[in-house]
Design goal:
By secondary structure, the chain is an alpha/beta fold. The protein has one domain: Alanine racemase (TIM Barrel, Alpha-Beta Barrel). The chain has 10 helices and 8 strands. The chain has an 8-stranded parallel β-sheet. α3 links the parallel β2 and β3. The N and C termini lie close together (11 Å). Bound molecules: pyridoxal-5'-phosphate (PLP). Pyridoxal-5'-phosphate (PLP) binds next to β8 and α10.
């Protein structure tokens, strides 16, 4: 299958969404070739890998951390990370806030919510997410910026199931927005959709699609 990158971008932008090009396991050269086509948002799932690539690539790349994040690694990305998609505990958020303060930054992040079937996947239940937001600790954080939610669909060929999960993520987003962030303009992102299901995600209201293999396997 061949991919026309410009068409993909148009398809995504026509739905008022943005592309995060998932560059994990891809070389600096591969990333640069996409950069030269105008791509600026890139996503990595491992801090170690991001630490290696970051100094070798242009400064105006917006780096997204999309994979599970351990608290002890936050300090390495705090100076420059554009958006952390994978906040799944209060203690992780405390560390991001602490590192944000250290670097004089307000670090944007998403709550990772779990809607997929597989029990191995990281992510918060709505109850757990709500408990974080209602906690005094969270209310006192000055160096993090709640910017929306992230989620993954179940790894299945059942498109109906994936659609239902994306619908649920959208519903959760709307509940959180209306309950806790009605006036917060920055709370606006729904990060959902990957190579195999990004079109479904766009249909259901995704604002950030995280696409790796579809792009890089066709460069
Ligand atoms: C790898 C990865 C993606 C992209 O997956 P593709 O199927 O290659 O598009 C998206 N989100 C997360 C969290 C990932 O780890």
């Amino acid at each position: 299958m061949s991919l026309h990158f410009e068409e993909l971008i148009q398809q995504i932008h026509s739905k008022k969404a943005e592309l995060v090009a998932v560059s994990k396991t891809r070389s600096v050269e591969e990333i640069l070739s996409l950069y030269k086509m105008g791509q600026r948002h890139f996503g990595e799932n491992r801090v170690q890998e991001l630490r290696q690539k970051h100094p070798l690539l242009p400064n105006d790349i917006h780096w997204h951390l999309i994979g599970h994040l351990q608290s002890n690694k936050v300090k390495y990305i705090a100076p420059y990370i554009h958006l952390i998609h994978s906040v799944d505990s209060l203690s992780l958020l405390e560390e991001i806030n602490k590192q944000g303060a250290k670097h004089n930054r307000i670090i944007p992040f998403l709550f990772q919510l779990k809607v997929a079937e597989e029990f191995t996947k990281f992510g918060l239940s709505m109850e757990a997410c709500t408990a974080i937001i209602e906690s005094d600790k969270f209310k006192n954080m000055k160096n993090v910026l709640p910017s929306g939610i992230m989620g993954m669909g179940t790894f299945t060929s059942d498109l109906n199931q994936i659609s239902e999960e994306f619908k649920l993520l959208k519903k959760y987003f709307t509940e959180l927005k209306e309950t806790f962030f009605p006036l917060a303009e920055d709370f606006k992102e729904i990060s959902m959709g990957m190579s195999g299901d990004y079109e479904l995600a766009l249909e259901e209201g995704s604002t950030l699609v995280r696409i790796g293999s579809l792009i890089f396997n066709n460069l």
